[in-house]
Design a protein that fits this description.
The chain is α/β, with parallel strands linked by helices. The chain contains 10 helices and 8 strands. Helix content is 51%, strand content 13%. The chain is elongated, with a radius of gyration of 19 Å.
């Protein structure tokens, strides 16, 4: 019997599809501030390399602020480009990156309709996100998600980042639901599916319009209980599980 559904936010309820569109211009501005010559291919290659290296390093941590993760990616990116990074440029990037990503994350098609339908079935709905509060709260407010969820927690709230068990356990505690009555829905095999499986939750892996999930460290994965392409597919899963 499914009584509750916990959702990841980025890549799950919201799509990352516009993140490259806002990130690349920021990196081009950074190139100008660093006063270096670099091709578009250089920028893409070194940013990807920096992201992979930092994601692997941070995968060993049970908690971190995502501001620090993105800061360290940018610092390594500048180093790989051969630029002299100043404190002023770093401060500018942290603020500009936060604003750009927060505003470009928009709800997936049928997200609110699906949440409304699940809410109508009496399900407990929660958001459990690896994100800092200064990004989470604006997204929840801008997209009107508070109307559809019972609670939302961030990794900053709990001082725990998925796949660490603590963030999942706190979400379960707040819900008051038994482990075997909860579905966890996420786009990240490493963060969402591995972490939720390890605490005994049933899992749903969702595709983000075919985009690969970000910040993967190449660690071993476990198979999800279900795989879907659209949020509305959850309605079918719940109906089958509860009949």
């Amino acid at each position: 019997m499914i009584k509750g559904i916990f959702f990841d936010l980025g890549g799950t309820l919201c799509s990352y599809k516009d993140v490259p569109r806002v990130t690349i211009p920021l990196l081009n501005q950074a190139k100008e501030k660093l006063d270096i010559v670099a091709t578009a291919e250089d920028i893409k290659k070194f940013y990807q390399e920096a992201t992979i290296q930092i994601a692997q390093a941070y995968s060993e941590k049970t908690y971190y602020l995502h501001e620090n993760l993105f800061k360290d990616i940018f610092i390594l990116f500048c180093k790989l480009l051969g630029g002299e990074l100043t404190k002023e440029t770093l401060t500018w990037y942290i603020s500009a990156h936060r604003e750009a990503v927060t505003t470009c994350l928009t709800l997936k098609e049928n997200a609110l309709e699906t949440l409304h339908a699940l809410q109508g079935k009496g399900l407990y709905l929660s958001i459990v996100s690896n994100i800092d509060n200064d990004m989470l709260e604006p997204i929840l407010k801008n997209e009107g998600l508070h109307e559809y969820i019972n609670h939302a927690i961030s990794s900053e709230d709990v001082k725990s980042c998925k796949p660490d068990a603590k963030i999942f356990e706190e979400a379960m505690r707040l819900s008051g639901l038994a482990t075997d009555t909860i579905l966890f829905v996420g786009d990240s095999p490493e963060h969402d599916i591995n972490g939720a499986t390890n605490v005994g939750l049933k899992t749903v892996l969702i595709s983000d319009n075919g985009m690969p999930p970000p910040l993967q460290a190449g660690k071993a994965r476990v198979a999800p209980s279900f795989t879907i392409n659209h949020l509305s597919d959850l309605i079918v899963i719940v109906e089958k599980e509860n009949n």
